[in-house]
Amino acid sequence: MTENNDDNTPPQEGAFDAQLSFSLPFVDAPTPIEWIVKRDGRQEKFEQRKIAEAIFKAVRASGGDDRDRADSLASGVTIYLAKRLNGESPNVDQVHDAVEKVLIEMGHARTAVAYVRYRDRRSRQRALEHGGAHAILKELDEAQRQREAIEAFTPRPLFVCTSDEQVTGWDRARIVEALARETRMPEDDARRVAEEVERIVQRANLTTLTAPLIRELVDAKLVELGLERYRARHMRLGVPLFDAEQIICTPNQGEIEGQQDPASTDVTLAQRVKREFALATVHSAEVTDAHRRGDIHLHGLSQIDRMQSATHFVEFLKRFGLAFYSGGRYAPPPSSALSLVAQVSRMTSAMQPHFVEGVRWSNFNESLTPALSSESNMERIARNALVQLIAPAHEPPAVVELSWPRANVAACMFALQFAETWGAAIDEGNAFGMPHIDVAIDADALEHADFRGMLECLLESYERRACVTLRFERGEVEAPGRRWRARDLVGGIVTLNLPRIAYQTSGEEALHDLLAERAQVAFAALIEKRSFLDRLFLYGGIGPHAALAFQYNNKAYADPERARYVAGVTGLSECVKILTGEELHNCEVALACAQRILRRLRDEADAFSAEDRVAVRVGADASESCARRFARIDLQQHGDAARNIIKYDGITREAAYTPGVSINGQLAALDKIRRESALHSEMELQTATAIQIESSDMSVLDLLGTIEAALHQTECSALRFVCARLQLDIQNL
Predict the structure, then answer these.
(1) Per-chain mean pLDDT for the chain
(2) What's the CA gap between 548 and 310, in Å, rounded?
(3) pTM of the model
(4) pLDDT digits (tens, 9 = 90+) for 654-678
(5) 473-to-92, 100, 228, 597 alpha-carbon distances in Å
(6) Domains of the chain
(7) Taking Cα atoms as reference points, which of 456, 454, 472, 465 lies closest to residue 701?
(8) Residue 41: is its pLDDT beyond 50?
(9) Sign of the Cα pseudo-torsion (537, 543, 546, 551, in order)
């Protein structure tokens, strides 16, 4: 018999002999037992073998298998009965009592318990044979208790469905390894957490677990134990089941404009995860909290692993062909305009996944020469280029820069043809995904009738104007030359909530001090984005930005060291109104105050950039989504103060601030351009002035007159014409 004693003490082998020893060595031995009295009064021959068999059954029930020990214990029972009864025949119950006593005295408590259960079960079986209802019920209750006892003490097999959809056995050591690997938690603490989680699982009576459930249990235990810093590094990123169902199954729940389809919901779900990753891993707790409070806005969180924007040159293709990914040449330099346009399309597709904003092509029409050979194929090339540059539904539109180099007739003819083809496609209802146009305007170009005709084509309808930016060039214009590297790289943008700063301060000096503090938080966010991008670029041609790692003469196509980062501003108009009580559009005092605010922020950015950590430039954030977000948050946090300042959309009644440094109010177009130009001069990045007009309010000739006046009479750097139906009013809800 292999069982150990219940109290882990050696068996008392001499205990039985001591209790059966005789006080005097000359006393006669007890009379052997010959008969046993059965329960019905009959006498049967006493057989020690039957006692041994009963003991052995109890031994096996308790996990043992020693038959010799059972025989030895049966002999002891026989001697004990002979000594106690002194020649009398024992009955069945006396034999059972003797067996229990011997087993307990010899240190075999578990075997004794098993024997008692066996004895009780036999008793109930006899009662059942006689049809006793009470015995039947007692038997059923005992069977239930035994099942519960077995289930409680018998470990169930526990399986885990891993994240790669494999099934494996439970092993708490994997929790210890994961905590040590992912959070750098000390091994002793990790083991303690794993043991606690295992107890939770056992109490829950589970048979199959999933990897997400285990991670949630671990995270909950980390919170309970006050180990929040480890939980933050161990938490799982994802989308709640309800949100995922809404995104996948409900129309218009995605974050991408346009028709919803399974591919767009793929993108939406992936972007949600990246957003959580950015806030939890890329950015510090201070920056994340400032974003959530609405002090700042972190742009592109769902695309945290991308740069913001860049300008690209067709010259790269003319020089290298499609030579991306560590120099692997996918196609040689093109030999015709059509093949060049095809490679532009392929390069656009290769570049777009690395940038938040659409791919911008510099001097597109001029760069296509000398491949543009004759007037006869201009229309075909323009139509082909337009089709190739239409963006898919889930990507931002590309930006095509058109110039008017009067000495390059082919380039001018192509620009005019491209504008006509582009405008006709928009008029047919195909504006979605159509490339945006950026037109370079100088005094010489405006004197040319064909150029003015191209502008008339671009500005003929509201739908066309919404996709056009007019960029003024004064002085010498640099020719495209042999540029091939991406330029104007922007790594990231963080926008400051200017009205929030005004709510929280009293007086301009205090506002400038708090502005400087908030600027430092924004700069810290930009450094964090820069550090993360540097980490991605370290992998070079085998990393996530392999397409940007192409090198020629030790120069990378897109060098993150040359990237700049933008500290954007929005709600300047409301900020000045809070501070001075005057509207920015009709008060010189308010305008001067706005200039000082921008100048202070620029000084902070210049000082920060001088430390050689990251090049920060100040710019206006013209995005309406950011202005609306700040307004919604400030309405909750600043109540009546914000309610009296915030503007509301004239149609949707949605709360918003004035985007960027724009000026609201009833101003003539030229006056608005002039006043906003004074603000643009305080910033280092080009900003477009948006002139809001009704579609029938100004003719194309009027627009051309405004363009010419803006070029010659103001310092405006860029101009856009937008529909006035989005005009914000100052009525309260």
Answers:
(1) 82
(2) 11
(3) 0.73
(4) 889 999 999 887 788 899 999 999 9
(5) 117, 108, 55, 27
(6) 13-153 (no CATH), 159-236 (no CATH), 237-282 (no CATH), 309-472 (no CATH), 487-729 (3.20.70.20)
(7) 456
(8) yes
(9) positive
